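Here is one chain, start to finish.
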Amino acid sequence: MVSNFFSNKRVVVTGGAGFLGSYVLAKLAERGCKDVLVPAIEDYDLVEIDGINRMYDDMSPDVVIHLAAVVGGIGANREHPGEFFYKNLMMGVQLIEQGRLRGIEKFIAIGTVCAYPKFTAVPFKEDDIWDGYPEETNAPYGLAKKMLLVQSQAYRQEYGFNSIFLLPVNLYGPRDNFDQASSHVIPALIKKCVDAINNGGDYIECWGTGSASREFVYAADAAEGILLATEKYNGSEPVNIGAGFEITIRDLAEKIVKLTGFAGEIRWDATKPDGQPRRCLDTSRAKGLFDFEATTGFDEGLSNTIEWYKRSVK
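Its structure:
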């Protein structure tokens, strides 16, 4: 049954100009949501309370989907732990507080798989989120995001404020960030392979040993999960958004080499960190609460992403 939840809602999507945001905006349009507003970073600094208040004054949302974040791969997290902690915490905490004070209908806080403990039983269940400290290289980012879960639950308990907290696993897809300094593993590997083909390189270099595992969800699927939760879920418990599988980084690299057509060698730099040893989510809660399942096959999603990048560098 098609939901009409968004038909008369005024929705603000922070980070709507970003990677995941582009898919959320497209799916809002598919749902007939005609009143969608995206606060541009040039106009509203959402780390600062003045920018947040001006955004709420100007946009008067019923619903806020908070996607905006300062993010990056392992290297960026190691270089900017203080910045990643402060900016992500201040954005989220102040957006929720000002939303509560203004009586908005619903706030959707987007967390991160980095909030889970470094050593978590696989698949990660939402109830395990407090069972240890996150992996060190991205702990400041993960903890800043996890505080929004605490705030959401506390505000629901004391004020009856309808804030939900979602935990998406690593995203990928067309329009991802392919910047060498800040990209995550899939766009980084695609870029290395395609650039090596174009430049006549005979090898690519990869961080770590390749033994760590990861799960990836196609960005369009993640956007669908976020909007299904917005429509149907009004609870205090965190909910994973994922595809429910894991692959080692070594196997991922070999798969991307094959799909890109790169014929050279993969060299592993074991002096660089692997990050969290394993990542794979239990996605049964999302299925049970708002009937979300990822539908894009991994090879299909990777091929779409590779083709998009190839077109973008022509």
